[in-house]
Amino acid sequence: MYSLFIIVCIVLVSLTSLCKSDQDVNAAAALARQVVQDSGIGTMLTLVDSSVNDQFEGYPFGLMEYYAEGCDNVDSGDLLLFMSDLQINARNAHHQNQKVGFTIRALKDYNKPFGNQSTPVQQPRFTLLGELVQMPRSLRKDNMKCFGQAHREAIFWERFHDFAFYRLEVKSIYYVGGFGGINYIGWIPLHLYQDSSNHIAFVRQDP
C-alpha cells in the first residue's frame, strides 16, 4: 500500500512538472492584447437602468457586440464600438457609463492542447472593466474607416442616425488563461495591458 502511494506521488509530481508553464502576468498581458487584436467580437455587460426595466434595475445585462481596436494614436487596448442608441446596452450605459464590462474569448488556439484536442476552456478569456465614452461626431468618419476595416458590414449602418461610436476606456482586466496552474489566472495590472510593446511570440492555429 505504501509503495502504491509513493508511485502515485511520483506520477503527480511528474504531471505537475510537465504541465508547468512559463506564462506569468507579463505574458498574460501580451496574450490578452493579441486576443483583443484577433477577435473583434465579445459580450458587452451593463447594469439595467430603471428606464429600461424597473423590475430588473441593477441586474447585469449582456449582449454580443462587435468592436475594433487600435483605432487611436495611443494604442492602449481600448475598444471602439458602434452601437444603436435604441439597444439596451447603450441605453443602460447612458445612465451608468462608468460601470461597463466587456468579455472576450479566444477564437483561435493559443495554448498547446492538453490531451488529444483543444477545448474552449483551455484557451484565454477575460473581462475588461471600464468606462464607456461617446465619441464626438467630428471623429465619425475616421472611426468608421477603422471600424469598417474590421467589420465590413458595419459600413452599411452608417446611414442609420441612431448609431453612434463609443470607446470603452479600459480600467481593469481579469484574465483566465486556461486551466489553473498551467496558465496565468488573475488580475492584470493596467499598465502591462496598455503597453503595446509588450509582445511575445505565439504559436497560433486556425480554428
Helix content: 25-40%
The name CATH uses for the topology is Pnp Oxidase, Chain A
Query: Class in CATH?
Result: Mainly Beta
Strands, total number: 8
The CATH superfamily is identified as Electron Transport, Fmn-binding Protein, Chain A
User: What is the C-alpha radius of gyration, as a whole number of Å?
Assistant: 20 Å
Largest sheet: 8 strands, antiparallel
Walk me through the structure.
It is a single chain. The protein is of the alpha+beta class and 207 residues long. It has one domain (22-194): Pnp Oxidase, Chain A (Roll). Helix content is 27%, strand content 27%. Strands 1, 2, 3, 4, 5, 6, 7 and 8 form an eight-stranded antiparallel beta sheet that branches. The chain is globular, with a radius of gyration of 20 Å. The model is unreliable at 5-20 and 203-207 (pLDDT under 50). Residues 1-21 form the signal peptide.
TL;DR of this structure?
With 207 residues, the protein is of the alpha+beta class.
What is the element layout, followed by pairings?
Layout: H1 2-19, H2 25-39, E1 41-47, E2 60-66, E3 68-69, E4 79-84, H3 88-93, E5 100-105, E6 125-134, H4 140-150, E7 163-176, E8 185-188, H5 190-194
Labels describing this entry:
alpha+beta; Pnp Oxidase, Chain A; 27% helix; globular; disordered C terminus; Split_barrel_FMN-bd; CREG_beta-barrel; CREG-like beta-barrel domain-containing protein; signal
